[in-house]
Amino acid sequence: QVQLVESGGGSVQAGGSLRLSCRASGYVVSSYCMGWFRQAPENEREAVAVIDSDGRPTYADSVKGRFTISKEKGEYTLYLLLNNLKPEDTAMYYCAVMMRYCYGGSWTLRSAQYNYWGQGTQVTVSS
């Protein structure tokens, strides 16, 4: 079993910043692929950013240049720095882990590839 616990969400005004954290525990390897996804009401879950087993990030086009995903090598905490937030970024943000190594590619943005999910942390951006 793997547990993922997110934190760091909140309410900010447009242009503000937040940093999300996700702590993984249980039967997980630190270099397995991990990612952040989000889901707004009445929308499907979508990828935000993922980090592969070599620490290389892949971002959704909607967040490129504004969000930064990171994880220290050998550590079990995943981060997402959200800068220049927009009202359309309002959503529940979920952390997920893929129980395998991966090495880049757009396929890593597919939520179906991920095996365990956290409970989510809410991000609300007001205009």
What can you see in these coordinates?
The chain is an all-beta fold and 127 residues long. It has strands spanning 2-7, 10-13, 18-26, 34-39, 46-51, 57-59, 67-71, 77-82, 91-97, 116-117, 121-126. Strands 2, 4, 5, 6, 9, 10 and 11 form a 7-stranded mixed beta sheet that branches. Strands 1-3-8-7 form a 4-stranded antiparallel beta sheet, with no helix packed on it. The chain is globular. 32% of the residues are buried. The mean pLDDT is 95.
The amount of beta strand, in percent, is: over 45%
User: Number of DSSP strands?
Assistant: 11
Helix content: under 10%
SS-based class: mainly beta
Number of helix segments?
0
Q: State the separation between the terminal residues, measured CA to CA.
A: 40 Å
What is the gyration radius calculated from CA atoms?
Answer: 13 Å
The largest sheet, given as strand count, sense and whether it forms a barrel, is: 7 strands, mixed
Name the helix and strand elements from N-terminus to C-terminus, one letter apiece: EEEEEEEEEEE
Average residue pLDDT: 95
Oligomeric state of the chains present here: single chain
The low-confidence runs, each spanning 5 or more residues with pLDDT under 50, are none
The coarse silhouette is: globular
Task: Write a concise keyword list for the protein shown above.
127 residues, 4-stranded antiparallel β-sheet, mainly beta, 11 strands, 7-stranded mixed β-sheet
Strand and helix layout:
Elements: E1 2-7, E2 10-13, E3 18-26, E4 34-39, E5 46-51, E6 57-59, E7 67-71, E8 77-82, E9 91-97, E10 116-117, E11 121-126
Parallel strand pairs: 2-11
Antiparallel strand pairs: 1-3, 3-8, 4-5, 4-9, 5-6, 7-8, 9-10, 9-11
